[in-house]
Amino acid sequence: MSELKFKVLDLLREDSRRSADLLSTLLGVTEQEVKAVIQELEDEKIIVKYSTVVNWSKLDEDKVTALIEVQITPERGRGFDAIAERVYLYPEVKTVFLMSGAYDLLVEIEGRTLKEVALFVSTKLSTIESVISTKTHFILKKYKQDGIIFEEHEGDHRMLISP
Question: Where is the HTH asnC-type domain (predicted)?
Fold first, then answer.
């Protein structure tokens, strides 16, 4: 992949609202070159979607996020892929990763209440034939996500006292 593509990806990852005009200025190339690179990246499914990172704790919306460690038995011929597909097709599931280590899949889900998340785990996720065990962790507070810090750190405003 060309250096220009990497630079465009990096700048769009920081802020996907940057225009082709601004990107061309930042990169020292023409706007048409930037548009062509973006189109190639979209056509190749390297850029899959443009999204917004939301700090839900600033809203009155009740939302519960959980990370679930899932141990599974891989299926013959398809390995972990078939089970991962069954899991990620549920609308509650936001993210699924194949992991190394003590568990196989890391599943992120969202619900309105703790009970709703627990119900998903007990009735949908843990009932999949290949699932051996699950371990659910509820996110209490997000400090940083996708490189974005949600709360600005206030400096120490105490007076310095020297001995």
Answer: 1-62
Span 81-116, pLDDT tens digits: 999 999 999 999 999 999 999 999 999 999 999 999
Name the residue among 37, 57, 55, 56 with its Cα closest to residue 47.
37
Closest by Cα among 112, 111, 110 to 95: 110
pTM of the full predicted structure? 0.75
- Amino acid symbol at 18: R
**Strand-pair partners of 98:** 105
CATH 1.10.10.10 domain position(s) in the chain: 3-43
Q: Which of helix, strand or coil describes residue 35?
A: helix
Return the CATH number of the domain spanning residue range 3-43: 1.10.10.10
pLDDT per residue as tens digits for the range 14-47: 888 999 999 999 999 999 999 999 999 999 999 9
Confirm if 85 and 98 have CB atoms less than 8 A apart.
Answer: no
103: Cα separation from own chain's centroid? 19
In angstroms, the CA 127 to CA 155 distance is 49
CATH 3.30.70.920 domain extents, the chain: 56-141
